[in-house]
Amino acid sequence: MTSGYQTRRTLPREPQFMHGTPGTIFILENDGLRQGLYRIGATRRSGVAKAMELNRDTLHTIPGNYECVFELHAKDCGGALEEILKLFQHHRRGRKTQDFYELDLDTATEKIANVIATFNRQGIVRQQQHQSMMRHLVMDEIPASNTPEFTPPPASLLQKAYQWVAG
Questions:
Q1: Which pTM does this prediction carry?
Q2: Cross-strand pairs, 106
Q3: Distance CA 26, CA 40 (A)
Q4: What Cα–Cα distance (Å) separates residue 80 from each residue in 16, 97, 154?
Q5: What stretches of 51-146 adopt beta strand conformation (E)?
Q6: Angle ∠(95,100,32) on CA atoms, nearest 5
Q7: Of 1, 72, 85, 153, which is least packed with CB atoms within 10 Å of its CB?
Q8: pLDDT band, residue 159 (cuts 50/70/90)
């Protein structure tokens, strides 16, 4: 029986799990593996935090320590990660449960940054469309006849209030 801190946290591995969620796309390098082999993934935290988590995991089967070599925030990290994994599917290496890819780091970071920029632009357009639609709904729901008109209080009341405060 293992203690609670040694058990592996099980989360869905599919990028669909994080669709619509803002987060960070990261590239991790492991000094125990050959050069040019990187792990690509997404997290709601930072890539550095993910590397530290993997380094603390006592049950991991891969030797060496992880280091975050690239991270970039995405407004929809699940959608962006899915597109990135499709883009690099022919570079995948190792077991299917591990997201390792044999890549040139500079080329990979450039392609990933382009995918994330596209997703962020699409997210901004969707957000603006949603806000515009909400504005129209709110304006349509408030009939002009129900808006109360502001009527200032009588001058004598203001004079009495001023005298009371000043006195």
A1: 0.64
A2: none
A3: 6
A4: 10, 19, 62
A5: 66-74, 92-93, 100-102
A6: 95
A7: 1
A8: confident
